[in-house]
Amino acid sequence: MNGSLEHLGTDECWRLLTQYHLGRVAMVLEGRPFVMPVNYIVSGVSVLYRAGAGSSLDPAEAGSLVALEVDATKPEYHSGWSVVLQGHARQVTDSAELADCARLPLRPWVTHAQSVCVRITGEVTGRRIGFR
Predict the structure, then answer these.
(1) At 132, is the pLDDT very low, low, confident or very high (cuts 50, 70, 90)?
(2) Which of 57, 42, 58, 66 is nearest to 93 (CA)?
(3) pTM of structure
(4) Cα 44 off chain centre by
(5) Band of the pLDDT at 2, cuts 50, 70, 90?
(6) If we measure between CA atoms, which residue out of 55, 127, 124, 67 comes closest to residue 91?
């Protein structure tokens, strides 16, 4: 049996991102690829996550070009989907944005002495694979 590959539209990608809250952030850190899981939340057409200030996931430390990848699979059916948000990450510093960030149900899984709110904006793409 052959599977079919479907490229997802922007609206479908954002819909899928809102259904999940765990993904992987990829970036280059000290000249090497770096990938780390993060819990996130969709805010408009961007994604927010929290990081420890000065940690590897703090864009001030790692640089601003990032990718967030989220997927879901059903291995028994050889099907699933994957969505990637490629763009820029920046630490949220505006007081109104920080207040919004504080109201969102976004809490770090690991407690840091000081956490920062990070926003990723960019281009979202996705694909779904399944049986024909």
Answers:
(1) very low
(2) 58
(3) 0.84
(4) 13
(5) low
(6) 55
Q: Which domain holds residue 93?
A: 3-131
Token pair of 42 as six digits: 């969709």
Q: Which residues pair with 97 in a beta bridge?
A: none
Residue with tokens 């490629």: 86
pLDDT tens per residue, range 81-109: 999 999 999 888 888 888 877 777 766 66
CATH code, 102: 2.30.110.10
Which own/partner pairs from 51-58 qualify as long-range (CB within 8 Å, at least 24 positions apart)? Answer: 51/108, 51/112, 51/115, 51/116, 51/118, 52/108, 52/110, 52/112, 52/113, 52/114, 52/115, 52/116, 53/112, 53/113, 53/114, 53/115, 53/116, 55/112, 56/29, 57/25, 57/118, 58/91, 58/116, 58/118
Look at the chain and report how many structural domains it folds into: 1
Give the burial class of 127: count Cβ atoms within 10 A of its Cβ; 0-12 exposed, 13-18 middle, 19 or more buried: middle
Residue of 42, 45, 38 whose CA lies nearest to 18: 42
